[in-house]
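Quick start: read one record
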Amino acid sequence: MLNVDEAVASQNLLQYSKQLDWVHSNYDDLIKRFGDEHIAVLDHNVVAHSSDIHALMQQLRAEYLNDVPRILVEFIYREHPNFILI
């Protein structure tokens, strides 16, 4: 069983929510700059990006080790994918 501080977990979830709102609010600009790439968002700033998720995660661990739990990683689609629900 993980020993998770509920206050920290709650704070991280709130931060993720705010950063996701920021991504959605800035999506058109993000498409122009980072279309078809993964982005890493920390404090409403793109701190890293890559088309290779593994390379991005390696970079984040190297450069932002203490902040990794607070970083939102999101894929920016140049064109919105079409899904067929059955």
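Helices lie at 6-25, 27-34, 53-63.
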